[in-house]
Amino acid sequence: MGDPRMPDSDPIAERSLQMQASPEFQRLRSRFMRFIVPLTVLFLAWYLAYVLIAGFAPDFFATRLGDSYITVGLLFGLAQFVSTFAITMLYSRWANRVYDRDAEPLREQMEHAAMVGGR
Question: What is the pTM of this model?
Answer without folding.
Answer: 0.72
